[in-house]
Write a structure and sequence with these properties.
The protein is an alpha/beta fold. Helices cover about 30% and strands about 25% of the residues. The protein has helices at about 15-25, 45-50, 70-80, 100-110, 110-115, 130-135, 140-145, 160-175, 200-205, 235-250, 305-315; strands spanning about 5-10, 35-40, 55-60, 90-95, 115-125, 150-155, 180, 225-230, 255-260, 270-275, 280-285, 295-300. Helix 2 links the parallel strand 2 and strand 3 (about 55-60). The structure holds guanosine-5'-triphosphate (GTP).
Length: about 325
Amino acid sequence: MDRVPVTVLTGYLGAGKTTLLNRILTEEHGKRYAVVVNEFGEIGIDNDLVVETDEEVFEMNNGCICCTVRGDLIRILSGLMRRKGKFDAILIETTGLADPAPVAQTFFVDEDVQAKAKLDAVVTVVDARHIEQRLADSKEAREQIAFADVILLNKTDLADEADLARIEGRIRSINKAAEIHRTEQCGIDLAKVLDRGAFDLDRILEFEPSFLEVGHEHNHEDISSISFTDVEPLDEQLFNRWISQVLQTKGADILRSKGILSFKDQDDQFVFQGVHMLMDGDYRKPWAPDDPRISRLVFIGRNLDVPALQAGFEACRAF
Ligand SMILES: Nc1nc2c(ncn2[C@@H]2O[C@H](COP(=O)(O)OP(=O)(O)OP(=O)(O)O)[C@@H](O)[C@H]2O)c(=O)[nH]1
């Protein structure tokens, strides 16, 4: 029986995973995907940032895919397998904090999953601007590179040639086998990413002999997330001033911020994106007529000053 190929998209917070996922979902390739999105924040934002498609998107919030929600992943996969034939392949976008090992392990140690699905490749998106910093302070960033079959060295617009060459050297020292592609906005021929048949258990066992042993010790206790919602419209100028100031002063600790915001007198949703001190945002699409216009904002990082962030966010309300 043919097993359904599964591609795991990983990469640290803000590297460009959703950007890649959206490319895959919008390009004409004649394939149907089932998509599983996992995010770390309490409120689902990622799910709404995934382009609208005919594909089915399963959200896994409230935890990291590699830890507490792994049981959910197995349940989702088992459920999907019962509907085989409705899609050709599965894409899993992990949180930026995920250690890919236990996610990959799912495809080898859970019998039901193993019988029906096969891990095609781990695709890791790397943020050229921030990866060196991450390799210095995050074990997960390193694991994401070590486990990769395909690496997109993304955000090449934010690094120069010398940076890119140095980073490629760092990547090679962690993973000799992966294909590395330089990308901007994850622009790549998708044939280089999908249907690779690249995952190689022997290679993994070579550098992680305990890979198939069940039992996963992992915590993100120094990193937390806080999210805010507000039904009152926000003032765009106040928000921009506040968020710029927050990221300029606390951006070293705030690894990721993102939101879907309702600004006063605007019919479109504003999507805000921050990675450390870099931020951008734009109006995306109209609020649906019967959808409540609720602003949602999430911060993920270390030492988050929750009361100050909350007070600052509330002060952005428009009157
Ligand atoms: N300058 C620049 N920005 C990029 C590039 N690729 C993606 N971005 C931006 O980086 C931000 C984060 O991109 P996402 O695709 O949401 O990243 P992610 O890895 O899914 O983020 P999390 O799911 O929160 O971990 C967005 O504002 C993107 O528009 C790139 O090549 N260059």
